[in-house]
C-alpha cells in the first residue's frame, strides 16, 4: 500500500484553489510574500521562471520532505506585449480596449517541485498556451465590465469564467489554463509513474 505525499499549492489565487478542489485533489495552500521578478524574454520562459520562483519561495518556508509543491503564473500576451494585472481602472480600460475584437494568447507556467523523504528534489516546469478570441466591445460595455470589479485581480483585466464569458467568441487550447491552472496537465504529471513504476504522489 502506498502512502500519499502532501501536496502544497503555493498560490493566493482563489481560482487555482477551486480548480485543484474540482478534480478532488487533497492539498494545502501556503502563500509566500517574497518578491517575484523575471529575466526571461519569451512568454513561455517568463511564466516558467515565475512559477518556479513562486514554488521555490513557498518551499523555502517549509520542511520539504515527502512533499509536492506547485507554483503557477498566468500572463496575457497581445502583439508580443505582456499584460499582467491592471494597476487601476484606466489600465483595465486600456487592456480591454486592445483585447476586444481579436485574438490573444494566454500562457500559464506551472512548476512542480517533488521532494523525496530525504528532502532531495526533482523540478518540472512547463508552460501551456491557449488562444482566446474576444468579440467586439464598445466603450460602454468595457466600462460596465470594469465597474463589476471583476477585472482588477486578473491578468489581462478579464476573467473567462465570469461575466466576461459574454465576450468570448472561441478559444483554442485548454480553458482551465486561461482560468489560471492547466489542471489536467498537473494531474497527469503527478499521477505519472517513473522508471520504477512509482507515482510522484507515493512516498518511498
Ligand atoms: C486571463 C485570466 C486570468 N485569471 C487570473 C488567474 C490568476 O489568479 C491571475 C493572474 O495572476 P498571477 O500573478 O498568475 O496569480 P495570482 O497573483 O492571482 O496568484 P499567485 O501568484 O498567488 O498564484 O489572473 C482569471 O481568473 N481568469 C482569466 O480569464
TrEMBL record:
Pfam families assigned to the protein according to its UniProt record, in alphabetical order: Maf
Reactions listed under catalytic activity: UTP + H2O = UMP + diphosphate + H(+); dTTP + H2O = dTMP + diphosphate + H(+)
GO biological process per UniProt: nucleotide metabolic process
InterPro entries, sorted: ITPase-like_fam, Maf-like
Active site residues per record: 73
Site positions per UniProt: Important for substrate specificity: 15, 74, 161
Subcellular location: Cytoplasm
Enzyme class: hydrolase
GO molecular function term, any single one: nucleoside triphosphate diphosphatase activity
Keywords (A to Z) from UniProt: Cytoplasm, Hydrolase, Nucleotide metabolism
Obligatory cofactor(s): a divalent metal cation
Main localization (coarse): cytoplasm
GO cellular component: cytoplasm
Enzyme Commission identifier(s): 3.6.1.9
Job description of the protein: Nucleoside triphosphate pyrophosphatase that hydrolyzes dTTP and UTP. May have a dual role in cell division arrest and in preventing the incorporation of modified nucleotides into cellular nucleic acids.
NCBIfam families: maf
Family: Belongs to the Maf family. YhdE subfamily.
UniProt-recorded name of the protein: dTTP/UTP pyrophosphatase
UniProt organism field: Faecalicatena contorta
Amino acid at each position: 500500500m502506498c502512502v500519499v505525499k502532501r501536496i502544497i499549492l503555493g498560490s493566493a489565487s482563489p481560482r487555482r484553489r477551486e480548480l485543484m478542489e474540482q478534480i478532488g485533489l487533497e492539498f494545502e495552500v501556503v502563500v509566500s510574500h517574497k518578491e517575484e521578478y523575471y529575466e526571461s524574454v519569451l512568454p513561455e520562459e517568463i511564466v516558467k521562471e515565475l512559477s518556479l520562483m513562486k514554488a521555490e519561495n513557498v518551499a523555502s518556508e517549509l520542511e520539504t520532505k515527502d512533499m509536492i509543491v506547485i507554483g503557477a503564473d498566468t500572463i496575457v500576451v497581445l502583439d508580443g506585449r505582456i499584460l499582467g494585472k491592471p494597476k487601476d481602472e484606466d489600465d483595465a480600460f486600456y487592456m480591454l480596449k486592445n483585447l476586444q475584437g481579436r485574438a490573444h494568447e494566454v500562457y500559464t507556467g506551472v512548476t512542480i517541485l517533488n521532494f523525496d523523504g530525504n528532502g532531495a528534489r526533482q523540478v518540472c516546469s512547463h508552460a501551456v498556451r491557449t488562444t482566446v478570441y474576444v468579440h467586439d466591445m464598445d466603450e460602454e460595455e468595457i466600462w460596465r465590465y470594469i465597474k463589476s470589479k471583476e477585472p482588477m485581480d486578473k491578468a489581462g483585466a478579464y476573467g473567462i469564467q465570469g461575466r466576461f464569458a459574454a465576450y468570448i467568441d472561441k478559444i483554442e487550447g485548454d480553458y482551465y489554463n486561461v482560468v489560471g491552472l492547466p489542471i489536467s496537465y498537473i494531474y497527469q504529471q503527478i499521477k505519472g509513474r517513473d522508471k520504477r513504476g512509482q507515482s510522484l504522489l507515493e512516498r518511498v
